[in-house]
Design goal:
By secondary structure, the protein is of the alpha+beta class. It has ten helices and 19 strands. It has two domains: about 130 residues, Phosphorylase Kinase, domain 1 (2-Layer Sandwich); about 240 residues, Transferase(Phosphotransferase) domain 1 (Transferase(Phosphotransferase), domain 1), CATH 1.10.510.10. Helices cover about 30% and strands about 20% of the residues. A five-stranded antiparallel sheet has the order 3-4-5-7-6, with helices on both faces. A two-stranded antiparallel sheet has the order 1-2. A two-stranded antiparallel ribbon has the order 8-11. About 45% of the residues are buried. Pfam families: DUF3403 (PF11883), PK_Tyr_Ser-Thr (PF07714).
């Protein structure tokens, strides 16, 4: 049975009363991350039997991937609608918190560059989130696969950059809430049938009150390589920490390289340092993915590098807002300020950009080696 809250009949279960009736996690009243009072929105419920049929009983053949939350399955509802099902691992404490966060948050968000949550399932010991299916998987699958990255020509990459920027702007300024995503990265940008970007995975997102510009946490979560320095080192997050992640992602998109260390001669450089060196030496075009050189106007390519460097500045105050970024991307006539040396400017930099952390305390960073750090 597929319950839609907007067509709710008297006595029909909704997410909130369903959870409370089953003595499950309480979603009502306060925002789970900030503790502030918010208006709850009801979420369509999909029963377990429907999802078992849709996914062929969660067949391994319908399991395209797995993350920290748990496995993801593709399926098809009786009405023919294709879906993606995120199934919470029963042993995942982190996943349980992310589940609550995503259900209470993403139901309030509607934007063409955000993934759409269709409903959820909470039955027996199962907790699942059901999304619209994205047939082209995630951005990293195309960007970092030598066999597929040629499918992303310059116009497509620029369109993806603009779409991600507009989606973040909506989260920061244009929705009813001020939302910090905290884990923007290539694998969390899904691509629809027409290769339009959809920001996904709001399990780590936080809400700031209207008068708050930043907040601090003792539990630093996210993905190394995309974290702003003030967040990675001190647990401080704001819209500017998302801007930093966007800058890293922008530089990855136009270079086709991950920010996990580039070996040049005897040095291992961060992608940010590599971009800075080439740009400051007037060799910015050498930073671009060779596969897009022929289709990329020189002025656009150099401008994107410039914007990316502005987004990854060491000091949060030196980074633009996403509204600034959208304007800068949309008009080549607007003069750009000169960037300083980016954050994490190093002589040797070793990291695994796809390794996430959920247990870092007091702003500490585990499993990362950074030597000779020389930020400005």
């Amino acid at each position: 049975m597929f319950f839609f809250a907007e067509r709710k009949e008297k006595g029909q279960p909704t997410l909130l009363n369903y959870l409370e009736a089953r003595n499950s996690t309480n979603f009502s009243g306060n925002n789970i991350q900030t503790g502030k009072q918010v208006n709850s929105q009801e979420m369509p419920l999909i029963d377990l039997a429907t999802l078992q049929v849709a996914t062929s009983n969660f067949s391994s053949e319908n399991k395209p991937g797995e993350g920290g939350f748990g496995p993801v399955y593709k399926g098809e509802l009786p009405n023919g609608k294709k879906i993606a099902v995120k199934r919470l691992s029963t042993s995942s404490v982190q996943g349980s918190e992310e589940f609550k966060n995503e259900v209470t948050l993403i139901a309030r968000l509607q934007h063409k560059n955000l993934v759409r949550l269709l409903g959820c399932c909470i039955e027996r010991k199962e907790k699942m989130l059901i999304y619209e299916f994205m047939p082209n998987s995630s951005l990293d699958v195309f960007l970092f696969d030598r066999q597929r990255h040629d499918q992303l020509d310059w116009s497509r990459r620029l369109s993806i950059i603009n779409g991600i920027a507009r989606g973040l702007l909506y989260l920061h300024e244009d929705s009813r809430l001020k939302i910090i995503h905290r884990d923007l990265k290539a694998s969390n940008v899904l691509l629809d049938e027409e290769m339009n970007p959809r920001i996904s995975d709001f399990g780590m997102a936080r809400i700031l009150a209207g008068n708050e510009n930043q907040a601090k946490t003792r539990r630093v979560v996210g993905t190394y390589g995309y974290m702003a320095p003030e967040y990675a080192m001190a647990g401080l997050f704001s819209v500017k920490s998302d801007v930093f992640s966007f800058g890293v992602l922008l530089l990855e998109i136009i270079s086709g390289k991950r920010n996990n260390g580039l070996r040049l001669s005897e040095l291992s450089l961060s992608l940010l340092t590599h971009a800075w060196r080439l740009w400051s030496e007037g060799k910015g075009l050498d930073f671009l993915d060779p596969s897009i050189i022929d289709s990329c106007p020189t002025s656009q390519g150099l401008r994107c590098i410039h914007i990316g460097l502005l987004c990854v500045q060491e000091a949060a105050a030196d980074r633009p807002t996403m509204s600034n970024v959208v304007v800068m991307l949309g008009s080549e006539s607007i003069a750009l300020p000169q960037p300083k040396r980016p954050a994490f400017s190093v002589e040797r930099f070793i990291m695994n950009s796809e390794q996430s952390s959920s247990n870092a305390e007091d702003g500490s960073i585990n499993d990362v080696t950074i030597s000779n750090v020389a930020p400005r």
